[in-house]
Amino acid sequence: MTRLIITFLPMFLLFTLAAEDRSPATDIGLSLGYNYSQHVGEDTDLGDIEVFPGSTDGFSASLLMRYPLSDRFFVLSEIAFISGGSDERITTTVGSWEIEFQSNYRVSYLSFPVQIGGRLFSIGKYDIELFAGPYMAFPIKADYEFHNGLLDTVVNSDITSYVSTDMGFSIGEGIYRDTKYGRIGIDLRYFWGFVYSGYPTYENWDEAPLKNLFMTFNIQWYPGIREE
Question: Do 102 and 85 contact (CB within 8 A), yes or no?
């Protein structure tokens, strides 16, 4: 993971500097929001084990860098901290008995989305914007809690080394307004991961072929963009 961050971060910074050189009106902002995280994929049958994807809640916080390309279009790049994970139900059969387990994953990512966006239309002083683009997310902390329904025990593990670097596509829409305190807005975003999460279904067992889906609801503030 460290090697990937060392490789990708300079590329991100070079893109940032290049965009800033093209447009002196680069705007820096902050974002804070709620994150709904889940695994997507069909219920997975791993021999005697069946995995049912779940979901959990978390939060997100971002440093935003917005580069105007014209009066209507812009590039939006971010450095985002996203906390999420998934609560999964696992069943297995021993003889005529069906036993149920619970796996709870809590994962924190450092994510680097780069999106192209534009203003769709305006309603009075409010701008409605749409943006989309790729992202790459590096796991920085992952914890695993396994509830054994047969023995009534709980196992806690650090699974950071298991979790894959996530890559995918994001799309979002927001409403914004320039005020005397800066540009303030709210947005809703979806992040679809293209890479298997790497989470184990149980210690020393095969990983479940599930991918990440994040939905975030954010409040944004650009202090440098003020109402004229």
Answer: no
Phi, psi for residue 98 in degrees, rounded to 5: -105, 125
Report the greatest alpha carbon distance in the chain. Answer: 73
Please identify which residue in the block is written with the tokens 């935003």. Answer: 64
Choose the CATH number for 2-21+32-222 among 1.10.3470, 2.40.160, 1.10.10, 1.20.1300. Answer: 2.40.160
Is this prediction's pTM over 0.85?
A: no
Rounded to whole angstroms, the Cα distance separating 101 from 146 reads 7
Rounded CA gap, 28 and 14, in Å? 16
* Closest to 207 (Cα-Cα) out of 195, 191, 215: 195
Tell me the C-alpha distance between 160 and 163, whole Å: 6
Instruction: Name residue 207's beta-bridge partners.
Output: 200
Q: What is the pLDDT of residues 59-97, one digit of tens each?
A: 999 999 999 998 899 999 999 999 988 887 777 776 777
